[in-house]
Amino acid sequence: MNRIIGTSASPAQVASSLGRLSGRVAVVTGAAQGLGRAYADRLLAAGALVALWDVADGQLRETSAALTEKYGADRVVSAVTDVFDEDSVRSSVDRVVGRWSQVTVLVNNAGGGLFPAGPSEKMTVEQFSRVLAVNVTGAWLCSREVLPHMRAEGYGKIINVTSTMVTSGLPTGLVAYTTAKAGIVGLTRAMARESAAKAFVSTPSHPAMSRCASPAPCRPRCARRSKSR
Fold first, then answer.
1. What values do phi and psi take at 209, rounded to 5?
2. Is-catalytic flag, 177?
3. For residue 3, is pLDDT > 50?
4. Which DSSP state fits 55?
5. What is the pTM for the complete model shown?
Protein backbone atom coordinates (compact mmCIF):
# COMPACT_ATOMS: atom_id res chain seq x y z
CA MET A 1 0.00 0.00 0.00
CA ASN A 2 1.31 3.45 -0.82
CA ARG A 3 2.01 5.54 2.25
CA ILE A 4 1.25 9.19 1.61
CA ILE A 5 2.18 11.70 4.29
CA GLY A 6 1.61 15.45 4.04
CA THR A 7 0.30 15.43 0.49
CA SER A 8 -2.87 16.98 -0.92
CA ALA A 9 -5.46 14.55 -2.23
CA SER A 10 -9.17 14.70 -2.94
CA PRO A 11 -11.50 11.72 -2.51
CA ALA A 12 -11.82 11.66 -6.30
CA GLN A 13 -8.04 11.37 -6.63
CA VAL A 14 -8.01 8.72 -3.93
CA ALA A 15 -10.62 6.74 -5.85
CA SER A 16 -8.57 7.03 -9.03
CA SER A 17 -5.29 6.11 -7.31
CA LEU A 18 -6.81 3.01 -5.75
CA GLY A 19 -8.36 1.91 -9.01
CA ARG A 20 -11.42 -0.22 -8.53
CA LEU A 21 -12.93 0.13 -5.07
CA SER A 22 -15.22 -2.85 -5.33
CA GLY A 23 -15.73 -4.30 -1.86
CA ARG A 24 -14.31 -1.28 -0.05
CA VAL A 25 -16.57 0.47 2.45
CA ALA A 26 -16.36 4.26 2.65
CA VAL A 27 -17.90 6.66 5.16
CA VAL A 28 -18.41 10.27 4.09
CA THR A 29 -19.32 12.81 6.76
CA GLY A 30 -21.20 15.96 5.81
CA ALA A 31 -22.53 13.98 2.87
CA ALA A 32 -25.96 15.57 2.50
CA GLN A 33 -24.89 18.35 0.14
CA GLY A 34 -22.04 20.14 -1.59
CA LEU A 35 -18.61 18.54 -1.60
CA GLY A 36 -19.69 15.71 0.67
CA ARG A 37 -22.36 14.59 -1.74
CA ALA A 38 -19.91 14.90 -4.64
CA TYR A 39 -17.31 12.81 -2.79
CA ALA A 40 -19.88 10.11 -2.06
CA ASP A 41 -21.03 10.06 -5.68
CA ARG A 42 -17.45 9.69 -6.95
CA LEU A 43 -16.63 6.89 -4.52
CA LEU A 44 -19.78 5.04 -5.52
CA ALA A 45 -18.86 5.50 -9.17
CA ALA A 46 -15.48 3.91 -8.38
CA GLY A 47 -17.22 0.84 -6.96
CA ALA A 48 -17.24 1.49 -3.22
CA LEU A 49 -20.07 0.84 -0.80
CA VAL A 50 -20.79 4.21 0.82
CA ALA A 51 -22.29 5.32 4.15
CA LEU A 52 -23.63 8.87 4.13
CA TRP A 53 -23.45 10.74 7.46
CA ASP A 54 -24.87 14.17 8.15
CA VAL A 55 -26.74 16.07 10.84
CA ALA A 56 -29.20 17.56 8.31
CA ASP A 57 -31.91 14.89 8.25
CA GLY A 58 -34.02 16.24 5.38
CA GLN A 59 -31.14 16.88 2.99
CA LEU A 60 -29.56 13.58 3.93
CA ARG A 61 -32.73 11.69 3.01
CA GLU A 62 -32.88 13.47 -0.35
CA THR A 63 -29.23 12.72 -1.15
CA SER A 64 -29.55 9.13 0.01
CA ALA A 65 -32.61 8.61 -2.18
CA ALA A 66 -30.89 10.11 -5.22
CA LEU A 67 -27.71 8.06 -4.83
CA THR A 68 -29.68 4.92 -4.05
CA GLU A 69 -31.65 5.35 -7.26
CA LYS A 70 -28.41 5.89 -9.19
CA TYR A 71 -26.30 3.11 -7.68
CA GLY A 72 -28.68 0.70 -5.93
CA ALA A 73 -29.97 0.17 -2.40
CA ASP A 74 -27.32 -2.46 -1.71
CA ARG A 75 -24.52 0.10 -2.04
CA VAL A 76 -25.80 3.09 -0.07
CA VAL A 77 -26.70 3.52 3.59
CA SER A 78 -27.33 6.76 5.49
CA ALA A 79 -27.42 7.76 9.14
CA VAL A 80 -28.15 11.06 10.83
CA THR A 81 -24.85 11.57 12.62
CA ASP A 82 -23.51 14.35 14.82
CA VAL A 83 -19.73 14.07 14.45
CA PHE A 84 -19.21 15.85 17.77
CA ASP A 85 -21.27 13.28 19.69
CA GLU A 86 -19.52 10.05 20.74
CA ASP A 87 -22.72 8.02 21.02
CA SER A 88 -23.94 9.22 17.64
CA VAL A 89 -20.65 8.37 15.91
CA ARG A 90 -20.35 4.99 17.58
CA SER A 91 -23.92 4.11 16.67
CA SER A 92 -23.34 5.05 13.04
CA VAL A 93 -20.08 3.07 12.88
CA ASP A 94 -21.88 0.05 14.35
CA ARG A 95 -24.58 0.40 11.71
CA VAL A 96 -22.04 0.44 8.88
CA VAL A 97 -20.12 -2.53 10.27
CA GLY A 98 -23.36 -4.40 10.89
CA ARG A 99 -24.35 -3.85 7.27
CA TRP A 100 -21.02 -4.42 5.51
CA SER A 101 -18.69 -5.88 8.18
CA GLN A 102 -15.97 -3.26 7.67
CA VAL A 103 -14.96 0.37 7.25
CA THR A 104 -11.90 0.92 5.08
CA VAL A 105 -12.24 4.54 3.87
CA LEU A 106 -13.24 7.63 5.86
CA VAL A 107 -13.75 11.07 4.36
CA ASN A 108 -13.90 13.66 7.17
CA ASN A 109 -15.78 16.36 5.32
CA ALA A 110 -18.26 17.59 7.97
CA GLY A 111 -17.63 21.10 9.25
CA GLY A 112 -17.97 24.70 8.18
CA GLY A 113 -18.17 28.17 9.64
CA LEU A 114 -21.56 27.43 11.26
CA PHE A 115 -22.41 31.11 11.70
CA PRO A 116 -22.35 34.31 9.59
CA ALA A 117 -18.91 35.70 8.80
CA GLY A 118 -17.73 38.65 10.85
CA PRO A 119 -14.73 40.27 12.55
CA SER A 120 -12.99 38.16 15.16
CA GLU A 121 -13.41 40.76 17.89
CA LYS A 122 -17.18 40.33 17.60
CA MET A 123 -17.01 36.55 17.99
CA THR A 124 -17.91 34.85 21.26
CA VAL A 125 -15.96 32.03 22.89
CA GLU A 126 -19.02 29.84 22.31
CA GLN A 127 -18.98 30.51 18.56
CA PHE A 128 -15.24 29.99 18.22
CA SER A 129 -15.30 26.79 20.25
CA ARG A 130 -18.12 25.14 18.35
CA VAL A 131 -16.44 25.73 15.00
CA LEU A 132 -13.29 24.03 16.30
CA ALA A 133 -15.35 21.23 17.83
CA VAL A 134 -17.27 20.27 14.70
CA ASN A 135 -14.34 20.66 12.32
CA VAL A 136 -11.38 19.34 14.34
CA THR A 137 -12.80 17.28 17.20
CA GLY A 138 -15.34 15.73 14.84
CA ALA A 139 -12.64 14.59 12.42
CA TRP A 140 -10.56 13.13 15.25
CA LEU A 141 -13.55 11.37 16.83
CA CYS A 142 -14.70 9.76 13.58
CA SER A 143 -11.12 8.66 12.87
CA ARG A 144 -10.74 7.21 16.35
CA GLU A 145 -13.90 5.15 15.99
CA VAL A 146 -13.11 3.66 12.56
CA LEU A 147 -9.41 2.92 13.10
CA PRO A 148 -9.99 -0.36 14.98
CA HIS A 149 -12.03 -1.63 12.04
CA MET A 150 -9.32 -0.59 9.60
CA ARG A 151 -6.76 -2.47 11.67
CA ALA A 152 -8.99 -5.53 11.62
CA GLU A 153 -9.03 -5.37 7.81
CA GLY A 154 -5.32 -4.58 7.56
CA TYR A 155 -6.22 -1.64 5.32
CA GLY A 156 -7.37 1.93 5.78
CA LYS A 157 -7.56 5.35 4.16
CA ILE A 158 -8.59 8.56 5.96
CA ILE A 159 -9.07 11.78 4.01
CA ASN A 160 -9.44 14.95 6.08
CA VAL A 161 -10.95 17.87 4.19
CA THR A 162 -9.27 21.19 4.96
CA SER A 163 -9.25 24.43 2.92
CA THR A 164 -7.08 26.68 0.78
CA MET A 165 -7.93 29.40 3.33
CA VAL A 166 -5.31 27.90 5.64
CA THR A 167 -2.49 29.32 3.53
CA SER A 168 -4.18 32.53 2.38
CA GLY A 169 -6.19 33.61 5.41
CA LEU A 170 -8.82 34.82 2.95
CA PRO A 171 -11.62 35.70 2.78
CA THR A 172 -11.62 37.74 5.96
CA GLY A 173 -14.24 37.25 8.64
CA LEU A 174 -13.69 33.51 8.98
CA VAL A 175 -11.02 33.35 11.68
CA ALA A 176 -12.53 30.39 13.54
CA TYR A 177 -13.07 28.41 10.35
CA THR A 178 -9.56 29.07 9.04
CA THR A 179 -8.08 28.17 12.44
CA ALA A 180 -10.08 24.94 12.51
CA LYS A 181 -8.96 23.94 9.02
CA ALA A 182 -5.34 24.63 9.98
CA GLY A 183 -5.94 22.30 12.91
CA ILE A 184 -7.10 19.64 10.44
CA VAL A 185 -3.73 19.91 8.68
CA GLY A 186 -1.90 19.30 11.95
CA LEU A 187 -4.23 16.47 12.89
CA THR A 188 -3.66 14.83 9.52
CA ARG A 189 0.12 15.04 9.72
CA ALA A 190 0.21 13.68 13.27
CA MET A 191 -2.17 10.83 12.43
CA ALA A 192 -0.19 10.01 9.30
CA ARG A 193 3.03 9.70 11.30
CA GLU A 194 1.31 7.68 14.00
CA SER A 195 -0.41 5.25 11.65
CA ALA A 196 2.08 4.96 8.77
CA ALA A 197 3.93 2.09 10.40
CA LYS A 198 0.62 0.24 10.64
CA ALA A 199 -0.01 0.66 6.87
CA PHE A 200 -2.84 3.16 7.24
CA VAL A 201 -2.87 6.41 5.33
CA SER A 202 -4.11 9.82 6.42
CA THR A 203 -4.11 12.58 3.80
CA PRO A 204 -5.45 16.14 3.67
CA SER A 205 -7.67 17.46 0.89
CA HIS A 206 -7.55 21.21 0.15
CA PRO A 207 -10.66 22.21 -1.82
CA ALA A 208 -11.39 25.79 -2.80
CA MET A 209 -14.64 27.50 -1.83
CA SER A 210 -17.97 25.89 -2.64
CA ARG A 211 -21.55 26.94 -2.01
CA CYS A 212 -23.40 25.05 0.71
CA ALA A 213 -25.34 25.77 3.87
CA SER A 214 -24.29 24.88 7.41
CA PRO A 215 -27.21 22.79 8.69
CA ALA A 216 -29.30 24.69 11.23
CA PRO A 217 -29.68 21.68 13.57
CA CYS A 218 -25.92 21.73 14.14
CA ARG A 219 -25.89 25.26 15.57
CA PRO A 220 -27.94 24.95 18.76
CA ARG A 221 -26.62 21.49 19.53
CA CYS A 222 -22.98 22.62 19.42
CA ALA A 223 -23.82 25.78 21.33
CA ARG A 224 -25.39 23.76 24.15
CA ARG A 225 -22.35 21.53 24.42
CA SER A 226 -19.99 24.50 24.50
CA LYS A 227 -21.91 25.92 27.47
CA SER A 228 -21.68 22.67 29.39
CA ARG A 229 -17.91 22.28 28.96
1. -70, 145
2. yes
3. no
4. S
5. 0.80
